[in-house]
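ok so dumb question maybe but i'm new to this and my supervisor (M.) told me to 'just get the structure for Periplasmic protein' and walked off. so i did the thing. is this what she meant?? sequence i used:
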Amino acid sequence: MKDKVMERWSTYEPFYVLLGDKKISDIIITNHARSRWNDRIASETQDMEAIASYMWDCLKTNRITSYYRQEEDVYLIDDDIVMVAELVESERDLDLSGTPMTKMVVVTYLGRMSQTIELRDLKSYYSWLRHSRRMTLVKNSRKHR
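this is what came out, is it supposed to look like this??
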């Protein structure tokens, strides 16, 4: 979803918001991310337009930060909501110098740190998830024998 509320300052360059050193010109929310938003974040069911407009507001007010300093996959919104997003070069949108702008593809929302304390350390959380899934698979394979 492109930002529909903001007016362009220039007719030659599309609207963008800076996130670090990237120029975000579009936000795409996957169906998986929408279902995770409705399951883990929102109190009532929201559609893609409402989620995308919230994301634009967060981007414009610098409320989205990187979870890790070196990696650009996991982001925090308001130091509480943890989301996974890919930053992909846009084929359509170019800035005045001809450099491609970036699309933010929101893959999933992991949840709120205030509700799920395990999200404070994602590396240990993911290793715990892998271990618990592996143990579940091992237990299920034992039952089949």
